[in-house]
Amino acid sequence: QVQLVESGGGLVQAGGSLRLSCAGSGRTFSSYIMAWFRQPPGKERRFVASISTSGAVTTYPDSVKGRFTISRDNAKNTLYLQMNSLKAEDTAVYYCAARIQPNQPYDYWGQGTQVTVSS
């Protein structure tokens, strides 16, 4: 089992950058496939990025590809999301999530961190 705590959200102007962090507890953080999701106001939660256990493989939807970068530091039990060229439509609560197997649902979720992009 892993507990996840996000940080780094805030208010930023359009075109700016933010880096989110997700601290994981436990000694097995490196065993989890990790991901970021986001939920805009009044909308469903959507996938933002994922990263393999080693960090070698990353996946993004077209909406953030080229602007967002997911990374992890297994020695620090921490997941990151570097967000550049932010747009108003990136405004959402951002969640990190973890799962053991690639074909299973994400079992563990953080509490979320608010990102607000002003235009």
Largest sheet at a glance?
7 strands, mixed
Report the structural category: mainly beta
Oligomer: single chain
Overall number of strands: 11
Round the Cα radius of gyration to an integer and report it: 13 Å
* Unreliable stretches covering 5 or more consecutive residues: none
Mean pLDDT rating: 96
Instruction: List SSEs in N-to-C order.
Output: EEEEEEEEEEE
Report the total helices.
Answer: 0
Q: State the share of residues found in helices, binned by percent.
A: under 10%
What spatial form do the alpha-carbon principal axes imply?
globular
Beta-strand content estimate: over 45%
Distance between the termini: 40 Å
Keywords:
mainly beta; 7-stranded mixed sheet; 4-stranded antiparallel sheet; about 120 residues; about 0% helix; single chain
Word description of this protein:
By secondary structure, the chain is mostly beta strands. It has no helices and 11 strands. It has strands at residues 4-7, 10-13, 18-24, 33-39, 46-51, 58-59, 68-73, 78-83, 92-99, 108-109, 113-118. Strands 2, 4, 5, 6, 9, 10 and 11 form a 7-stranded mixed sheet that branches. It has a 4-stranded antiparallel sheet with strand order 1-3-8-7, with no helix packed on it. Strand 4 and strand 5 form a beta hairpin. The chain is globular and about 40 Å long. The model has no long low-confidence stretch (mean pLDDT 96).
